[in-house]
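Predict both folds.
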Amino acid sequence: MDKRPIGVFDSGLGGLSVIKELSRVLPDENIVYFGDTGRLPYGTKSNETIIKYAIEDEKFLLSFDVKLIIAACGTVSSVARKTGEQLPVPFIEVVTPAAKAAAKATKNKIVGVIGTAATVRSDSYKKAVLEVDEEISLHQVACPLFVQLVEEGFVKKDDEITRLTAERYLKPLKEKGVDTLILGCTHFPAISEIISDIMGEDVTLINTGEQAAKAAAWYLKENDMMGSGAEKHFFVSDRAESFKTVAGILLGSEIEGEVTTVNLQSYLK
């Protein structure tokens, strides 16, 4: 048994969708989560800034002697995945597992991706999907407002603001006839009901958090690194109370225990 925790980080709340899936597929693992709420969103930042933030987030998690790190952030996974190659522990990002799942799921070989501006700009999903199947036609749309809507808790299926925003963002993908849609930001599963309703029941949604959790479970089992325990520790760089309030929406239940606000810089000295 390897009782060391799994480390998970995101720019804010979205990574909790990965925690939800990890709790389902790896119920006996200890987890340390860091949400960089003081510097969100990452998706509107330059590549250089995103890489800098990713390195700092990873250093914070390493201070807890984690056995594996998951970048539960589509933007980091797209722009700063190479930071994971320098870590002393295994690293899992959300792009590659989701791309493989989408390539397997599509029937008409027309796949859509929605994500932050930085994710779409990087073409990371396009490259990853085409590596699996070069015959797939992939179409991307940046949906930056989705992040803010989820962070503010506008996630109910009948929320008029979110629905109108989604209809506008998703229209080009519907016109392209995609039959598979990658939710290329871990915030987006929170509004998957709205997205699915607009896209139609024949369109398969790929939850990046679910695929990353499955990849983590496979790695730990293959390398005899399974743990025992189920403790979860949550840290943020700002707004602990608002984080805890909205977190229940993404987790499907209230957070048990405290959410601790930390001075990230104090861990980087």
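Second protein follows, with its predicted structure tokens after the sequence.
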Amino acid sequence: MFTGIVQAIGKVREPEVLGDGVRLTIWAPTLGLDSVAIGDSIAVNGACMTVVNKTDKDEFVIEVSAESLSKTTGLDTFGEVNLEKAMRVGDRLDGHIVSGHVDGVGQVESFDQIAESVRLVIRAPRVLSKYLAYKGSITVNGVSLTINSVEDTALDTLVSINLIPHTVEVTTLKHLKPQSYVNLEVDTIARYVERMMSLQNKEDDDLFI
């Protein structure tokens, strides 16, 4: 489990083809890899990945399967990525509960400077619409964020988010621009509520059969 509070920005070396997937070596000198062992989990741009090797004190290696590549964006190329080590029992939950399982890929509609902040608008897949709510939580490329507004369209859902200067400065969100793709994870609690409500509605319908 994670919190969506980015701990470091890493840099991906040139990906190495691994069957249908890729092997990535990530340089992360500020993440604190001394406390990371092979087999540990690290969220890379919001996707939970397993450390399979440590080349030195500043680098770790992950292997991304074809399935993960098909469900995410930005894990098959070099560049900067948001990193967070798995949460430990007893850690402070400064963001929200994040599983590291990407629910869908969204596309940036706009990224506009508004006074000192940035207004980020993302087109989220329609299938995620029922989990998105005003003042609810969403994870974008591994960053825990609060939704400012939601607008459903015929094909997708427009999600508006306000980014404070600190968030822009310490994450890779600073590099976003219109048409950029981002990894999205909905609020875990919203997912369970939707499941419970759907079962309750089914039970209610069965009473009238």
